[in-house]
From TrEMBL:
Keywords linked to the UniProt accession: Aminoacyl-tRNA synthetase, ATP-binding, Ligase, Nucleotide-binding, Protein biosynthesis
GO MF entries: asparagine-tRNA ligase activity; ATP binding; nucleic acid binding
Species, as recorded: Hesseltinella vesiculosa
Protein name as catalogued: Asparagine--tRNA ligase, mitochondrial
Enzyme Commission numbers on file: 6.1.1.22
Protein family (similarity comment): Belongs to the class-II aminoacyl-tRNA synthetase family.
Domain Aminoacyl-transfer RNA synthetases class-II family profile: 134-439
PROSITE patterns: AA_TRNA_LIGASE_II
Length: 449
C-alpha cells in the first residue's frame, strides 16, 4: 500500500492518475490560458507535474477573476471529459487567487521561440518545452541512480574545489583570493581522480554533480558549467567489460525516461524531432556498434562524404567525423570507438600492451545527431608505467603524488567513464543546443541570474 503524502493537496498528475474522486478536490497551479464563452469559460491550469495540466470549467462570473500567469487555488469535482485532450476535467465550485499576474506577463497562448524563452530564463520553466526538459532531467537522473543501485555501486561526493586538473587541458577556473588555500586551487573539471580514490577501497562508485570548463567556445555543445555522471569500478578484466557497463547504463536510463515521461517524449517527437521515439526505441533494442579508432579512420577515409577536416591516423576525430560515424556509417546507431592513439588522450589511460603503448584502452561513445556522449577508459594501474607517462607529460609530480600512491598500496585493475548529462538530454529530447536542456545555462560571456 502506498504511503500517504504529507502534502495537503495532490499534484494534478497525481489526481489524474488516481481513480475518479467521489469528493471535491483542490488543485493549485498557474493559469496557462483562459478561453471565455457566453455561459462557461475554460482555463488550463498547470502545476508542473505533467505536460498538459488540467482543464477547469468555470461560470462566466468566476472567469473574470482569472488572467494568464496568475497563481490560483481551485476546488471542485473531477468529472469525465467529453474532449479528446484529457480524460478528466475539473468543474470548479470555488476560486482563490493566490498570486495575481501583471499585464506585462510575456507568455501568452502561442508558441514562443527557444531563443525568446532563453531571454526570459526566469520564466522558461512555465512553457511546455522548459517544463518538459525539467521533468525529463529528473527522470534521467532517477534512471541513472536506479541503474547504479541495481549494480551495487555506491554514490560518492567528490569535491568541487581541487588542486588538480584531471584533463590536463588547462581550461580551469581559478579561485580567488589565492592566499586562502596557500596554493593554486580551481573549480573541478572532473570528479574522476577523486572517484578513483573511493573505488580503490569501495569497488564500484559513481559521482553525479557539476563540473566547470573555462572553454571560450560558443558552439551548441559547450557550457562553462554542466553536470557529469562519472563511474569508477575495480576488478574489470578488459575494456569490453567497461563497454558493457556503459551500454547498459545508457540503455537503462533511456528506457526509464521513455516509461516515466511518455507525454513529454511525445511532445518532443511532435514538435522537435519526428524521428525521436523511433530512434530511442531502436537504441534500447539493439547492441551498440563497436569499432577501433583505426577502423574508424579507415571508414572515414573510404567515405564518399566530403569532410571539412581530412582524417589521418593520429589526428583527433572532429565533430563532423563523430556524427558521420554514428549516423551514415552505422545506420543511426550508437557506436563505441576504442583504442585511440596515446598521444591524443590523458595520462591516466591504460597503455595497450599489444602495440607497445602506441594506443590506449579507451573509448568514446558516439550518438547519432549528437557526437560524443560518453568517454572512458581502463585506468593505468601499473605504478612504473603511470609514473613514466606523467613525466612524459611534464606534470608536477608533487601535485599528484597521492594519485601515484594509489598504485603503490594494493593497486587493482580498474576503469571508468563519464557521461555528459546535458548531452544525454539532447539525445533524449531531440533538441540541438545544450543551452536548452540546462535550467540556468552558463557559457562564455553569459552568467545571468
Amino acid at each position: 500500500m502506498a504511503k500517504p503524502s504529507v502534502f495537503p493537496t495532490k499534484t494534478i498528475r497525481g489526481l489524474l492518475n488516481d481513480k475518479p474522486a467521489a469528493d471535491p478536490v483542490t488543485i493549485r497551479g498557474w493559469i496557462r490560458s483562459v478561453r471565455q464563452q457566453k455561459q462557461l469559460s475554460f482555463a488550463n491550469i498547470n502545476d508542473g507535474s505533467n505536460l498538459k495540466g488540467i482543464q477547469a470549467i468555470l461560470t462566466g462570473s468566476d472567469a473574470s477573476k482569472l488572467s494568464t500567469g496568475a497563481c490560483v487555488e481551485l476546488k471542485g469535482m473531477l468529472v469525465a471529459s467529453p474532449g479528446k485532450e484529457q480524460s478528466q476535467e475539473l468543474q470548479v465550485s470555488e476560486i482563490k487567487v493566490l498570486g495575481e499576474c501583471d499585464n506585462s506577463y510575456p507568455l501568452q497562448k502561442k508558441r514562443h521561440s527557444l531563443e525568446f524563452m532563453r531571454s526570459i530564463n526566469h520564466l522558461r520553466a512555465r512553457g511546455n518545452t522548459g517544463s518538459a526538459v525539467l521533468r525529463m532531467r529528473n527522470a534521467a537522473s532517477e534512471g541513472i541512480q536506479r541503474f547504479f543501485a541495481s549494480e551495487e555501486f555506491i554514490q560518492v561526493h567528490t569535491p568541487l574545489l581541487t588542486s588538480s586538473d584531471c584533463e590536463g587541458a588547462g581550461e580551469v577556473f581559478g579561485i580567488t583570493p589565492s592566499d586562502f588555500f596557500k596554493q593554486p586551487v580551481y573549480l573541478t573539471v572532473s570528479g574522476q581522480l577523486h572517484a578513483e580514490i573511493m573505488a580503490t577501497a569501495m569497488g564500484r562508485v559513481y559521482t553525479f554533480g557539476p563540473v566547470f570548463r573555462a572553454e571560450p567556445s560558443l558552439t551548441s555543445r559547450h557550457l562553462a558549467e554542466f553536470w557529469m555522471v562519472e563511474a569508477e569500478m575495480t576488478f574489470l578484466d578488459n575494456l569490453d567489460q567497461l563497454l558493457d557497463v556503459t551500454e547498459a547504463n545508457v540503455q537503462e536510463t533511456t528506457r526509464h525516461v521513455l516509461d516515466r515521461c511518455a507525454d513529454d517524449m511525445a511532445f518532443f517527437n511532435q514538435w522537435v524531432d519526428k524521428s525521436l521515439l523511433a530512434r530511442l526505441e531502436k537504441s534500447i533494442q539493439q547492441p551498440f556498434v563497436r569499432m577501433s579508432y583505426t577502423e574508424a579512420v579507415d571508414v572515414l577515409q573510404r567515405a564518399k562524404h566530403t569532410f571539412q577536416f581530412p582524417t589521418t591516423w593520429g589526428s583527433s576525430l572532429q565533430s563532423e567525423h563523430e556524427r558521420y560515424l554514428a549516423s551514415a556509417a552505422c545506420c543511426d546507431r550508437p557506436v563505441f570507438v576504442t583504442d585511440y592513439p596515446a598521444e591524443l588522450k590523458p595520462f591516466y589511460m591504460r597503455a595497450n600492451d599489444a602495440d607497445d603503448g602506441r594506443t590506449v584502452a579507451c573509448f568514446d561513445l558516439l550518438m547519432p545527431g549528437i557526437g560524443e556522449l560518453v568517454g572512458g577508459s581502463m585506468r593505468e594501474e601499473r605504478h612504473d608505467v603511470l609514473l613514466g607517462k606523467m613525466k612524459h607529460a611534464g606534470m608536477k609530480m608533487d601535485d599528484y603524488q597521492w594519485y601515484l600512491d594509489l598504485r603503490k598500496y594494493g593497486s587493482a585493475p580498474h576503469g571508468g567513464y563519464g557521461i555528459g548529462f546535458e548531452r544525454l538530454m539532447l539525445w533524449l529530447t531531440g533538441l540541438d543546443n545544450v543551452r536548452e536542456v540546462v535550467p540556468v545555462p552558463r557559457w562564455v560571456g553569459h552568467c545571468r541570474y
